[in-house]
Amino acid sequence: MHVTGTAPQPAPASSEDLKATVADLHETTDVIDGHGAPGKHARRFGLPVATALVMGNIIGGGIFLLPASIAPYGWVSLVAFGVLTVGAIALALVFGRLAARDPRTGGPYVYAREAFGDFAGFLAAWAYWITTWVSNAALAVAAVGYLDVLIPVNDHKWTACLAALLLQWLPALANFAGTRYVGAVQLVSTVLKFVPLLLVAVGGLFFFDPSRLGPFNASGHSAVGAVSASAALLLFSYLGVESAAVSAGEVRNARRNVGRATVIGTAGAALVYLLGTLSVFGTVAHNRLVTSTAPFSDAVNTMFGGGWGGTAVALAALVSMTGCLNGWTLLSAQTPYAAAEDGLFPAAFARRRRGVPTVGVGVTVVLSSLLTAYNYLSGSAKVFDVLVLVTTFTATVPYLLATAAQLFHLVSGRSVDRGRLVRDSVITVIAAAFSVWLMAGAGYAAVYQGVLFLFVGILVYAVMAARRQRREA
Hints:
By secondary structure, the protein is mostly helical. The chain contains 18 helices and 2 strands. A two-stranded antiparallel sheet has the order 1-2. The protein is globular. Residues about 1-40 have low confidence and may be disordered.
């Protein structure tokens, strides 16, 4: 057993440690492209961009609707926020520890495959891939509602559908241009969307009126039941904590920066969520907030008067969702890329251009576009709602496999820092419980649909495994 980390008398470094150290020292800001020369459009992300990627992917459009969604439960839902935040940060810490051990692109896929073999790795990659392109469709459709405030597009379902497709393909084009542009768009969109969010989250505290909070528990159920019910609505908001780990191969000094970016990004997003929701609760009367379709707009109008709040928040939401789509589009290609390099996904997914797996980007944006078109043409919002919850379920599969991989390393004693053993064990158990809670919160219908998606993946794995075995033979 090899023990890493600091100790009063450290053991001599192994050849693997020396190789990893040399690899870290030789990392540059340029990513080598397929021709063996530095690609000027392919750059490794530093800590700021990696943190922006995490925060940008966690904070999408949900923050702008969240206060009204949980208002019927009363401000007991803020307790659910706290519980979810603890779980999300525990999961972020687990990803940081796993990335320090294995800083390759792929995140949960890499961790599950290294610990449990090809099938577990494929299952993590397949489930995460489903999560990314279904989430992209959900974000695009939600963004159209805010775009309609600025430019009327919802008058006809065809114009709304075209607008949603455009919102998906613009980030895809940024990804085709290279990781250099992906990082630039992500950083700018994250900064821009935090301006109005912080305006409400911080400025709203100066207009806070406790009488507007309403009852602590307005649901009529027990406090525990109200926390669980409101948490089910909040679960989707924390998807994205794995963003830096999935793109670890594009992060400079990944062994250190992935963990830092994941924890900082998750904590920052949680703080914005909590302060923003608390400010809206304290500035908009409870009976009005329950029926609000634009709670942040109502909060700004209460704070400063006038009707310009709706336009400002709509613009902020649109910027937020576009940046979120930009980050998720990159993530949608990274996991299939890692799996394709190992022969578990079709080889085409391993093709890269300017640091981006272009085939993965193209396939996933086509799938999300088809799902978006289906959503508009079917005219059923319920189908869309179930698909959104499906992403909550499918995301927990790689989350749970990643925490299981960390638990495996801790119990087996593989590269374990004894000084951190107890702390890492507690954090891993919390992260595992959080993942199971995510799965339960998705609901029966979403779990049913998600399991069907996973079963299709098993058939794909059978074909890929047979082809690989035939090539080896």
